[in-house]
Amino acid sequence: MTGSRWLRWTFVLGFALGGFFDGILLHHILQWHHLLSLVPGMTDLRLQILWDGYFHALMYALAVLALWGLWRGCKQAPAAGATLGTLLAGFGAWHVIDALLSHWLLGIHRIRLDSAVPLAWDLAWLLAFGLVPIVLGWLALRRAGPGGPPPAALVLVLGLVATGAGIWAAQPPAGQPVTAIVFAPGIQPEAALARAGLADARVIWTDPLSQVTWARLESGNPWKLYLAGALMVSGAGMPAGCFSWARA
């Protein structure tokens, strides 16, 4: 593997990390939008969450593919400064493409849907997390020289960051009193809870349109709900991220 091929994989990893950053911050923590928030007819919360999950699965696949490529060619890697510069460029490229394609051409979502001036938020986000990282990456590439951490160590650190981001995103927020569950059509929440061995759980509210049920699980293993007809369970690690941060 040549240095140029190494940098291409680094760019892909930076691109995937940009997607992780957007998903964790905007979908989970701030909850400003979903991937398809502005698509006509996409009013079903279950479908919104499902497509958020598809998006994160794609970012995971890109990150794993990039890390595999980097690990194979770590002995032929260029200087660490070039790697970091390319990583920043990939991170910024994600936000540029997202702004041009998702915000303005396709119009499937905006950065902040509740803003009176959504374009201002789009432009600020594009500048801070798109153009600035690209410029910083370009400067790092120009100044790249020998030295710095060994390439294998750098790949290991980047892999741990990507893995840690996914594990962190799968955790429920602190102090969340209830569990959100999406059941398959036709599944009765009370019966499914009983089949999963969670007979002491209390159903708080169910939305028949989106199939989302809010329940207080006093004990038991929420993973068993998947065997009883659940499609998604917050805090049970699947899907990684978006639904685990659903708020009651």
UniProtKB/TrEMBL annotation:
Protein's UniProt keywords contain Transmembrane helix: yes
Residue ranges spanning the membrane: these are 12-33, 53-71, 78-97, 123-141, 153-170, 225-246
InterPro entries linked = DUF2243_membrane
Its keywords, alphabetically, are:
Membrane, Transmembrane, Transmembrane helix
Annotated Pfam families:
DUF2243
Keyword Metal-binding part of the UniProt annotation: no
- Name the record gives this protein: DUF2243 domain-containing protein
